[in-house]
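Field log, afternoon session.

UNIT: design team B
ACTIVITY: writing a sequence onto a fixed backbone
BACKBONE:
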């Protein structure tokens, strides 16, 4: 099966209306370029709490819902799938979810992925956990016959999630990030660690699990890295320039012959059998402290 993915990036803002304009613009661009799905970054419509704005105390949930419905209607008009980063309101004073909405070409909201690993300390409410409630489920959707899985930003620190999607038969991972709008104090303390580790981590996950990965990011300065796309052998096939809005079109062909080093033994390893071939019974194999 073949799938054309538009990996979209722009400077995410606290202003929902500005974000809406950017999303609509890039949805139209993705449609003109023949994409089946427009993939947007983390919190791209709502903005990112604790970064673009301080808290949800005075957040305009009505405007966010209205803007989301506008995007759903445009998806219907363009007949395109949309993976939309936003915030999902909860009840009983619970913090909202940090979410990806799955919108189909009929303009219907068909599923929602909620970021499972929000950043923060194990005790107390810090970082993401000060603003968001974690989710508890993986989400797949079939787009043009290709099964896609969804993840958000800090989820990439947990390889178990990629293995989980592999078990579900996912062929593509749409991984939305928000690694930007960094404060100078943060960069001085840690350096651009995300710019160093995100690409090679995504390359390793792609090759280890034999999946395509669309990884996007905000372009708000200082952005740690620009959006890119990885094929199942770990090769980055395309990348956008940093700090500039753009749409990267990438083609997935599930029948393409792409090198897969662990094809023979991956499924067995996933069942907990950690060796290739056949084990031998040999006393010299058992005695590990002698020559």
């Amino acid at each position: 099966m073949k799938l054309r993915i538009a990996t979209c990036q722009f400077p995410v803002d606290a202003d929902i209306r500005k974000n809406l304009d950017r999303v609509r613009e890039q949805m139209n661009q993705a449609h003109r370029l023949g994409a089946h799905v427009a993939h947007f970054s983390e919190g791209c419509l709502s903005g990112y709490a604790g970064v673009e704005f301080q808290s949800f105390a005075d957040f305009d949930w009505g405007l966010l819902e209205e803007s989301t419905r506008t995007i759903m209607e445009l998806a219907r008009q363009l007949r395109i799938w949309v993976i939309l980063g936003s915030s999902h309101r909860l009840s009983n004073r619970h913090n909202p979810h940090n979410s990806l909405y799955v919108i189909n070409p009929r303009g219907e909201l068909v599923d929602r992925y909620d970021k499972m690993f929000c950043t923060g300390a194990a005790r107390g409410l810090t970082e993401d956990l000060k603003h968001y409630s974690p989710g508890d489920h993986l989400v797949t959707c079939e787009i043009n016959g290709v099964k896609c899985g969804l993840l958000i930003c800090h989820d990439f620190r947990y390889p178990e999630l990629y293995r989980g999607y592999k078990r579900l038969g996912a062929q593509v991972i749409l991984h939305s990030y928000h690694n930007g709008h960094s404060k100078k104090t943060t960069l001085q303390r840690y350096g651009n660690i995300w710019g160093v580790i995100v690409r090679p981590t995504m390359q390793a996950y792609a090759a280890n699990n034999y999946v395509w990965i669309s990884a996007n990011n905000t372009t708000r300065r200082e952005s740690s890295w620009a959006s890119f796309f990885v094929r199942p052998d770990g090769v980055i096939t395309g990348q956008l320039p940093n700090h500039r809005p753009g749409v990267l079109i990438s083609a997935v062909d599930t029948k393409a012959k792409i090198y897969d080093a662990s094809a023979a033994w991956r499924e067995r390893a996933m069942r907990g059998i950690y060796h290739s071939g056949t084990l031998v019974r040999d006393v010299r194999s058992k005695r590990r402290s002698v020559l």
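LOG NOTE: The chain has seven helices and twelve strands.
NEXT ACTIVITY: expression trials, pending approval
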